[in-house]
Each structure stands twice: as structure tokens, then as C-alpha cells.
Specification:
The complex is a heterodimer of chains A (about 250) and B (about 375). Chain A has about 250 residues and is of the alpha/beta class. Chain A contains 9 helices and 10 strands. With about 375 residues, chain B is an alpha/beta fold. Chain B folds into 2 domains: about 80 residues, 2-Layer Sandwich (Transcription Regulator spoIIAA); about 240 residues, no CATH class. In chain B, helix 12 packs antiparallel against helix 13. The chains are: A alpha/beta (about 250), B alpha/beta (about 375). The interface between A and B is medium-sized, with 34 and 34 residues. Bound molecules: adenosine-5'-triphosphate and magnesium ion (MG).
């Protein structure tokens, strides 16, 4: 396709003079599932926040679906934001709303679906992430860590957005659930042609899901491309990360 | 980029094409629903094979159009069939909890019960504090000096400017209004009695209590509440640190010690304001005012004022800490408990003030 879904050009980010990103470039095309790798504290979450427009980079530009998030007016921004879903690293569920209302929230915000429709969609999403319908009445504080992750994923999927940003979606899930997550997202990707950018440290998720891999190290994207190409890059982080498990991925 | 969803009806066939996704349907959702509705009951062939995308919102829409059952004749790709199968697997009627309706009398009753529970909880907290104090007597090394002094600074020293400002303005206002009345009776010099008694005995403590409840009380509830929300309180307990000794006790003792001092300060500044207004309005000199103050204001009033400060400080911090400890881990409960803490603290202070007024009615009133 001609237009990239996400395009980052010349991103620099500094917190109080400390550079997290320096002249970083990334271009993600529609339909790709990109695994974003990088050491802890290397600025992966920060990069996702910049894609969402929650944080303005010190220099450089971010465009989503060809829109510059920082430049356009409020209505255009809202239209763009409806086309993406984000799973935050720590869930970021609305603590005052029940699980059901958390997932229903983005649907209700559209103001054109009736309650029966919303109810069915919410239960569908709950089933997708393997939560029981009866869990809908629980409050976020009453959930286990992995359940928080799954509800947050259900909320991110509520609108079945074109672009899905996932920050460590499978950390805190058992291997079975991780595998189901992989199946779920790849199923959705086939049906809807989603674009996914996910931060993960889990090799199985990466192996099962990612079509492309981007490696964030030395404050830039040092490698971006199909999985097998990136694995053969000669960089201490890449060799260290894949290490002995290199074969598992192929 | 996305092709709009299309519906084409021809001789017993309903042909769907384009992107049937929520985002693509949104611009003309009502139009689409109106187009689908007439096909509901008719026996037609549903041809979904030309569909390029189908998401679950659209699947729900189709499923509802079909009356919650598969149509007799359907042409669809396996991938899209899967999407609709997921919708089909949902139970039809998912029981939602019925909305609770509360009778007004029941509401009042539950309110009273809640108030009773809160009172009981505060007494329990107070008992716990007494046990903690006894424990600290035996283990003086565990006394949290740092937290204690930090609290005196935060709720005491940092409250001085605002209490001074408000006290000064109130002093001026009362003095000015009384002066207008007194002048017409020719009883100018009684301004000293009026200001002295009203400010030192009554207004100073109550005014400061209201300000401090809003300022430090809410801060205490919010801080302890957020510590509950983020599980910091639990982290403290795991390290073997008592939450009441480390978090609650320093706040309560800190404010109990600081309040009389703030009351003294605020009353002094209010008297200064009153003195200034009296000088401008009644030509009463500073030196006359200061000389006659001890005669007009028996020293017992000062002790009553300070005693009120002590009690009010204790009440405000106890209420604030109690509500903070009972925050449920969500934002709604945090905000409602902070509100309850301030409202309850101020109400209790006024109540305590009335009790003080009754029990000290024979003390400190100058006999003329
Ligand atoms: N708001 C902030 N203010 C100051 N520094 C920040 C801020 N947010 C992030 N940082 C710093 O930026 C760096 C990158 O943080 P980020 O959260 O993006 O890491 P990460 O790659 O997501 O790590 P992890 O894998 O552990 O989640 C860290 O060194 C962090 O200290
Ligand atoms: Mg992170």
C-alpha cells in the first residue's frame, strides 16, 4: 500500500536533558504485525505514547494514517484516535467502572449503538479474552493481574480498530492464555487486516504473531524488517536477546 | 481508504459488499439499518461472499437482522462465517442485575446505619492509636519523629499565611460592623470586649478549624487514600511497619499539636485587624486597646480557645485519617471519601464547639 499507517521521522525525545530517542525513524505499513523489542527502560512505552499523541516528541514528527496528530484540530484528532486501540502496560482500566462498563465505554462514546447491541458486543469481547460473562460486574480492583490485562485488551479491541498498540500484552498471562492471545490477534488480523504494533519480551508471542520486528537500542531503531532478517543482524542486543532461542523462532 | 458497506437487493438475493466494519458503518448507520430492516422476514438468499471485511459489530447487526438464527440460505466465506459464529454462540438473554430501587425511609435508615458504623470505626481507630502510644512508650526508638515533625511543618507552619490573611480580614470586618453600632450608643470602648471575647474564644478556633479541615484534612484523606489505591499501605505492612504508627499517628499528633498554635496566631492577627479598624473608625489608640484588653478578656478565654484548638485538631485529623483508611481502591471512592472527610470534620467541629459553649458558659465571662 502507498500510505504507511504509522510514520515516525527524526524523533528525538529528551527528559530533563537525557535523551531517550535520538533521530529515530520507523515506518509501519498497513497489515503488518510489528514486534517492538528493546531493553527495559530503552523507551518503548515512551515511543508508543508518542504515537498516540499523549506525549510530544522534543523534535521530529509523528503521523498516523497520514495525519499529523500534533497539527490537526480536535475533531480530526478524535476521528484518528477512534481508529486505534491501545493496551497500556498496567491496564489503565477506569477504576470507578465495572469490567462491563469499561469495555462498553468506547462503544457508548460513539453515541449511535443501542444498549442491546453494546451488551452483545461487550460479551463477545469478554468471550474473546476468555472471561466469563459473570465477570462483567467485577470492579477492576477485584481482578487478578492477568485478568486486568485481558480486560484491558478487550477494551482496546472494543472498536476493532485498524491500528492496535499493545504494551506487553502477554506479560502476566499463563502460556496457554498467551497462545490463545496469539490466536485471537492473528485471527482478527486476517479478518480485519489490522495493523499491530506490540512491545513484548516474550519469544513465543513474537514467534507466533509478529510479521516484522523492530529493535530499539542505542536510542534508535537499529533494525526493522521481517523476523528472520532482523535476527541475523549483528548487534549485541539482538544476539543477546535471541541468543540460544534463535532456532525456536524459525 | 476503506470502501463503504453496500447492500444490493435483486430478485430474492441480498448482496453485501465493501467493508462491514464499525468505522465504515458509522457515517450512515441509521440508513444501513433502515435498508436491512425490510429483509428481516423475507425468505431471501444472503450472499456475503463479496464482503471484504466483517467485524463483530457488523456481525451483531446481521445476526439481529436475521432474528438470532442462521438464515436458510447463506453464502459466506469460512473466515467470515467464523466471525458470525462467535456472535451466534452468545447466550441470547444475558441477565443483567435489576436496577435497585431504594425507598426513602430505607435510604434514611441506611444513612443512619452508615453514620453509626463510621462512629464505631473511629472509636476503634482511636483505641488502636492508644495502643500504639502505649507501645511507643515501651519502645521509644520506634517513635516516628521525622514524620511527626514533617506533619507539623506541613499542616502547621505552611498554614500560617492563609490563616493570617483570613483572620486579619475577619478581624477588620467584625470591628468595623460593631463600631457602627457602638457609636450610636456612645459605647465605643466596649469594642475591646466584643472583639476580645468573640475572636479569642469563638471565632479564632472555629475559623481556623474550617480552614484546616479544608486544607490539611482533605490532604490527609487523599494521601492515605491514594496509598490504599496503589497498595503502598500493603507494601508498608509487608515490611513490618505498622500503618497506624507510621502513617496515621504522626498526622493526628502533628495536627493536634499544631492547631492550638495556629489558633493563637490567627486570633492574634485577627485582633490586630480589629485594632486597626477600631483606630480608624473610633479613634481608639493601639495603646488604649492593648491596656484594656486584659481587663475585658479574662485569661480563661485564651485557655478555652487553645483547648478548642487542641480538640478540633484531633477531631479533624482523626476523621480525615479514618476516611482515608476506608477508601476503596477506585477513584470514585477516593473523591467521595475526601468530600465526606471534610464535611464530617467541619460538622463535628461545630458540634464540639456547641458542647464547649455549654460546658464553659460560666467560665471567663467578665462580671461588670
Ligand atoms: N515522564 C517521564 N519523565 C522522565 N523520564 C521518563 C518519563 N517517562 C519515561 N522516562 C524515562 O524514559 C526511559 C524510557 O522509559 P519507557 O517507559 O519508555 O521504557 P520501556 O522501554 O517501556 O521499559 P520497560 O520495558 O521496562 O517497560 C526511562 O529511562 C524512564 O526513566
Ligand atoms: Mg514500558
Amino acid at each position: 500500500m502507498s500510505q504507511p499507517v504509522v510514520e515516525l521521522t527524526g524523533i528525538c525525545t529528551a527528559f530533563a536533558g537525557n535523551f531517550v530517542h535520538r533521530d529515530l525513524n520507523l515506518r509501519v505499513e498497513a497489515g503488518q504485525i510489528v514486534g517492538l523489542l528493546g531493553g527495559s527502560g530503552s523507551g518503548k512505552t515512551t515511543l508508543l505514547r508518542e504515537m498516540l499523541g499523549l506525549l510530544r516528541p522534543t523534535a521530529g514528527s509523528v503521523s498516523l494514517f497520514g495525519f499529523n496528530l500534533n497539527g490537526s484540530d480536535a475533531l480530526a484528532q478524535r476521528a484518528v484516535r477512534r481508529r486505534l486501540g491501545m493496551l497500556f502496560q498496567h491496564g489503565a482500566l477506569f477504576s470507578a467502572l465495572s469490567v462491563f462498563d469499561n469495555i462498553a465505554f468506547p462503544l457508548r462514546e460513539l453515541r449511535c449503538l443501542d444498549e442491546d447491541w453494546i451488551r452483545r458486543l461487550v460479551h463477545l469481547k469478554l468471550a474473546m479474552v476468555e472471561m466469563e460473562a459473570s465477570h462483567g460486574k467485577l470492579m477492576p480492583a477485584e481482578l487478578s493481574g492477568g485478568m486486568v490485562k485481558r480486560v484491558a485488551l478487550a477494551r482496546a479491541l472494543a472498536l476493532e480498530p485498524e491500528l492496535l498498540l499493545l504494551d506487553e500484552p502477554t506479560s502476566g498471562l499463563d502460556p496457554d492464555r498467551s497462545q490463545n492471545f496469539v490466536d485471537l490477534v492473528s485471527g482478527l488480523q486476517q479478518a480485519l487486516g489490522l495493523t499491530v504494533i506490540m512491545v513484548t519480551h516474550d519469544l513465543n508471542t513474537l514467534a507466533g504473531l509478529a510479521s516484522h520486528v523492530a529493535v530499539l537500542a542505542d536510542q534508535r531503531i537499529i533494525a526493522f524488517g521481517p523476523k528472520d532478517e532482523v535476527m541475523s543482524v549483528d548487534h549485541p542486543f539482538v544476539t543477546g536477546f535471541f541468543g540460544a532461542d534463535r532456532r525456536k523462532l524459525l | 481508504m476503506s470502501a463503504p458497506p453496500r447492500l444490493h437487493v435483486e430478485s430474492g438475493r441480498v448482496l453485501l459488499s465493501g467493508h462491514w466494519t464499525l468505522a465504515a458503518m458509522l457515517p450512515d448507520l441509521t440508513g444501513l439499518q433502515a435498508q436491512l430492516a425490510p429483509q428481516r422476514s423475507v425468505d431471501v438468499v444472503w450472499d456475503l461472499s463479496a464482503l471484504s471485511r466483517l467485524d463483530s459489530a457488523a456481525a451483531v447487526l446481521l445476526w439481529r437482522t436475521w432474528g438470532n438464527a442462521w438464515p436458510a440460505r447463506l453464502e459466506i466465506s469460512p473466515l467470515h462465517r467464523q466471525v458470525i459464529e462467535r456472535v451466534a454462540e452468545l447466550p441470547h438473554e444475558i441477565a443483567m442485575p435489576p436496577a435497585l430501587r431504594i425507598h426513602p425511609i430505607e435510604f434514611i435508615g441506611s444513612l443512619l446505619l452508615k453514620a453509626g458504623r463510621n462512629l464505631q470505626g473511629m472509636i476503634v481507630l482511636f483505641g488502636q492509636l492508644l495502643l500504639d502510644v502505649a507501645f511507643l512508650f515501651k519502645h521509644p526508638a520506634d517513635i516516628p519523629w521525622r514524620e511527626f515533625t514533617a506533619n507539623i511543618y506541613k499542616s502547621g507552619a505552611q498554614a500560617l499565611p492563609v490563616t493570617a490573611l483570613v483572620g486579619f480580614l475577619i478581624g477588620i470586618t467584625i470591628s468595623y460592623l460593631s463600631a457602627l453600632q457602638l457609636k450610636s450608643f456612645g459605647a465605643d470602648i466596649f469594642i475591646v470586649n466584643i472583639l476580645g471575647i468573640s475572636i479569642v474564644r469563638e471565632l479564632g478556633p472555629v475559623l481556623v478549624a474550617v480552614l484546616v479541615a479544608g486544607r490539611s484534612g482533605s490532604a490527609m484523606t487523599a494521601q492515605i487514600g491514594v496509598m490504599r489505591v496503589t497498595e503502598e499501605i500493603d507494601a508498608l505492612s509487608t515490611m513490618g511497619i505498622s500503618r497506624t504508627i507510621r502513617v496515621v499517628l504522626p498526622k493526628i499528633i502533628g495536627l493536634t499539636v499544631a492547631m492550638p498554635l495556629i489558633v493563637l496566631w490567627a486570633s492574634a492577627v485577627a485582633l490586630l485587624g480589629g485594632m486597626l479598624a477600631a483606630m480608624l473608625q473610633l479613634d481608639l489608640s493601639f495603646s488604649y486597646f492593648i491596656e484594656s484588653l486584659p481587663r475585658a478578656l479574662p485569661v480563661a478565654n485564651l485557655f478555652i480557645g487553645l483547648g478548642k484548638g487542641l480538640v478540633f485538631g484531633f477531631v479533624i485529623s482523626l476523621v480525615a485519617c479514618y476516611f482515608g483508611l476506608h477508601v476503596k481502591p477506585n477513584t470514585e471512592s477516593l473523591s467521595s471519601n475526601t468530600t465526606s472527610a471534610v464535611v464530617t470534620a467541619i460538622t463535628t467541629v461545630i458540634l464540639a464547639d456547641a458542647v464547649f459553649a455549654i460546658f464553659t458558659r460560666h467560665i471567663g465571662v467578665p462580671q461588670l
